[in-house]
Amino acid sequence: MENIGILGSGRVAAVLANKLAGAGHAVAIGTRDPAQAASKWSGARVEHTEHAEAARRAAIVINATPGDTSVERLGALRDELKGKILIDVSNATLRGQNGLPSSQLYPGGSVAERLQDALPETAVVKTLNTMLFTVMADPGSLRIPPTAFLSGNDESAKAVVARLLGDLGWPADWIEDLGDITTARGTEALVLLVPSVVRKRGLVPFALTLAR
Question: CA-based Rg of the chain, rounded to a whole angstrom?
């Protein structure tokens, strides 16, 4: 079992923290107001603490902060994240008037690449950003098997992340390793499909899948 830090305390963080803690991992949620977050928590046993402390204690850190501010926030934790695996599940987008993604914040690149540049001594792995947050920890809820894509420069880090995805309910043959961190450009671009999907289907569980 791993010590896992999750940065962020929104819906994505809550879903991942609850499932990973239920699988036996020691999970600390990093948030700006630990006491308030703890008072509202009703899931499996986790700890709420500040961002820096959650990152410092963990061997694996999950970035569940908004992608448009992730580089600045996590760049400030460079020392705490040194030598760690950072799982980035964010998407960095500009928002339209309806609050849905309208364009990418980093055209020609990705937030995952920006994080890897800002954190050269951290192994960044991109995954789980091509689905509604509920599917991240319950992929079997969909009628068609979804795909969890992996992007990262460190092969051993990606292997660790693939095993952790197993604890979230992802069979090995539902995981697709795309290659190095630059391949995150493709999966992050897929978020631009979301507004059309939501307008047509509503906010129901969905994910991208690679038909083989």
Answer: 16
